[in-house]
Specification:
The protein has 363 residues and is an alpha+beta fold. It has one domain. It has eleven helices and eleven strands. Helix 5 runs antiparallel to helix 6. The longest helix is centred in the last third of the chain and has 18 residues. The radius of gyration is 25 Å and the shape is globular. The chain starts with 33 loop residues before the first helix and ends with a helix.
């Protein structure tokens, strides 16, 4: 055995200069492909909206990635609540003892949603999404609860500025009116509860303010419970999908004019209910009054994934059941194309709109 050990070489007797390893992180960097280098030279909003014409017989046909509708046919089911969470007797008892605090709140007609998906080929995925809408969704969190304190209170206190404090109360009253906030239950957290910091920040490119629930606040953040690897791979339809279809329409009927439409889903993330065992980790404190936040929050590492999963199935219904073939989804925006002049009266808004858009809004 000892005969296989190699003799150490003598150290070099000349100086060698190198960049400090603490200043350079090569482990996370991989060689960039030609396309990636091209994307990197572009503004971020253009990186997935570029068309590579190289090596194609017909340069007018761009490469089109998998669209969100087709992705729902192959994606894995959404996660269920881990067994160790269900075996957390203290948390389960607290939920059972306070049924008024923990409820499944959603405006989605889940039974109708499930009925419209009856012919969808990915049954395990459909079952996972519908189960989550009935019982509450889970955000891929997979860290044993005993590794975190029983109670986490990251309260920052009310903002000093009057307009910021007023916004928190305004948002609180709105969420309470929707049933997404439980109503106050005291000034002390119950066993198993986590309270994340709440901030008020300006909206992007605006002077208006918005409330932020900081699920990344260390050291015991909710987002630290979710592996980045588990939330990768959620696609979004983009300008390449739209551009390709516009080119096809133009080639087949160059004289026909088209209309592009877009509809934005209001309060998109908030529409999805969370499981009671996640609700206990979303306690909101405003002026020391504790309330349970029952629904999906913007800013959670898995929040976008579960919303994209739901919205992808809505798009599938629109395409496969309602036969709106030219429709795509980018986060909370659904967009599509329609023949110019093909209008339908939409009574809720009180004006004529593209027929496909009215079909979308009617769902």
């Amino acid at each position: 055995m000892w005969g296989d050990v190699r003799i150490h070489q003598a150290p070099a007797d000349t100086d060698t200069f190198a960049v400090s390893a603490s200043n350079t992180d090569m482990a996370r960097k991989a060689a960039l492909s030609k396309n990636e280098m091209a994307y990197g030279m572009q503004p971020k909003y253009l990186r997935y909206n570029l068309w590579d014409r190289e090596g194609k017989d017909d340069a007018s046909v761009p490469f089109i990635p998998l669209n969100l509708t087709d992705w729902t046919k192959v994606v894995k089911p959404l996660p269920t609540v881990p067994l160790y969470e269900l075996n957390n007797t203290e948390a389960m008892k607290m939920i059972k003892d306070n049924p008024n605090l923990f409820k499944i709140i959603t405006p989605i007609n889940v039974n109708k949603f499930e009925e419209l998906l009856a012919s969808h080929p990915n049954c395990p995925f459909i079952e996972s999404v519908c189960r989550g809408l009935h019982e509450g969704l889970w955000l891929w969190a997979d860290i044993q609860y005993m590794m975190y304190p029983c109670i986490i209170d990251e309260l920052l206190g009310m903002p000093q500025k009057k307009e910021e404090a007023g916004l928190l109360w305004l948002q609180h009253d709105h969420e309470h009116s929707k049933g997404r906030f439980s109503g106050p239950f005291g000034q002390d957290l119950l066993p198993g509860m986590y309270a994340s910091p709440i901030h008020v920040v300006p909206k992007l490119h605006s002077e208006k303010l918005r409330m932020v629930i900081n699920q990344s606040a260390r050291p015991f953040s909710l987002n630290s419970m979710i592996s980045r690897g588990d939330i990768k791979g959620f696609p979004l339809d983009n300008m390449r999908h739209l551009g390709a279809r516009l080119l096809v329409h133009h080639r087949t009927n160059p004289s026909q004019c088209l209309v592009v439409f877009k509809s934005d889903v209001a309060e998109a993330y908030w529409l999805l209910p969370m499981h009671p065992l996640w609700q206990i980790k979303q306690i909101t404190m405003i002026d020391r009054e504790c309330e349970v936040n029952r629904n999906n929050c913007f800013g959670g590492h898995g929040s976008a994934g579960i919303y994209i999963s739901f919205d992808g199935l809505v798009t599938w219904i629109e395409k496969k059941v309602k036969m709106i073939l030219e429709l795509w989804t980018y986060m909370d925006d659904l967009f599509g194309i329609n023949k110019e002049g093909s209008l339908t009266w939409y009574h809720k808004y009180g004006w004529n709109m593209p027929a496909n858009q009215v079909k979308l809004l009617s769902l």
